Amino acid sequence: MKLNNIDFETYFKNYPxxxxxxxxxxxxxxxxxxxxxMRDITEAYQTICKSSKFISELRRIRREFQGRPTPISHLxxxxxxxxxxxxxxxxxxxNHTGAHKLNHCMGEALLAKYMGKKKxxxxxxxxxxxxxxxxxxxxxxxxxxxxxxSVDIKKQAPNVARMKILGARVxxxxxxxxxxxxxxxxxxxxxxxxxxxxxxxxxxxxxxHPFPLMVRDFQSVVGIEARExxxxxxxxxxxxxxxxxGGGSNAMGFFSGFLNDxxxxxxxxxxxxxxxxxxxxxxxxxxxxxxxxxFNSIMLKDKDGEPAPVYSVASGLDYPSSGPEHAFxxxxxxxxxxxxxDDDAVDAFFELSRMEGIIPAIESSHAVAYGMKLARERxxxxxxxxxxxxxxxDMDYIIEKYGIR
Length: 405
What we know:
Layout: E1 2-3, E2 6-7, H1 11-14, E3 21-22, E4 25-26, H2 32-48, H3 52-66, E5 72-74, H4 76-82, E6 86-91, H5 102-114, E7 119-124, H6 128-140, E8 143-149, H7 150-155, H8 157-165, E9 169-173, H9 180-194, E10 198-200, H10 211-234, E11 240-244, H11 249-256, E12 264-272, H12 283-286, E13 288-292, E14 295-299, H13 324-332, E15 336-341, H14 342-356, H15 362-377, E16 382-387, H16 395-402
Parallel strand pairs: 6-16, 7-8, 7-10, 8-9, 11-12, 11-16, 12-15
Antiparallel strand pairs: 1-2, 3-4, 5-6, 13-14
Helix pairs in contact: 3-5, 5-6, 5-10, 6-8, 10-11, 14-15
């Protein structure tokens, strides 16, 4: 498949380029000292990703520890309620720790061991990345520091407890809006001070090169599995696939399995309360080109050109930018990005729970809501949604704020 002179049959060999760019997006905008650290990580990753020993070990971990492959479920009752379009979900909520995040955390921790590092450092918003990295650190015997904003600590208390039980040190971030952006700031600063003994395991397809590349590659297992499973279940490819997008790791991993296929691809951003700046975190929909956290992408800016305040009911989506590969996918037209507001996401949270017995993460509920919207608009076909995580972590917050609908 070709689009805008890009051959998707060879896409992964060419993107990102050797400097970490997807077109004009990406790169590594870091200090000279950290450039050396990034180069060391890049060289180590490029070496081990071609190593049969590393690949074999990662496959064993996925099979014996993570419980992969995760299945696809047909949402028959929900599909019949909406109309004739058949809805399916890729069940990343059944991946160990309850979300897709462990896919790249186990890979990054294995890389840390290969490089002789003693500690892993990360940020977390919804807490799933923090739990996954704490799990990986416990598995490999590494120290683990997780930075998390005060607001998210209150919203995601169950995941905070899980991180501590797993042996991680949870560092509360109290400056700014006290959410995901500030947690990334703090984690990145900590890494700058400890990079000789630690590795920064970023939680999405963002940050300086090689992190957007590495996280996409580790998450591509989701798309590879989903494509094979859907063909086996139905004998054909889905007409459309849908995933939520904050930083965009679940989406980019999911999309990567279908980029070279005649399949419509939709990324769903959080509209929050509405389009007013500060009421949402839909950077690809309302943002502009800008550099933050070591990479160039599309970001939401305030009047001074700095990262704007953002909001979403989903702690894992409230980030003022998006991964550079998503910005590239939007620019070349391969993925369509759209939005879902808080109310529709919460409605989908309850609808999926009651119609199918699956309680989704509130992040994933954005994708479910958009899949339901597409199904109502279409008269036939099939839609595959990436259910990036389970909703145990969100139940107390949703009930407190919205009640039982």
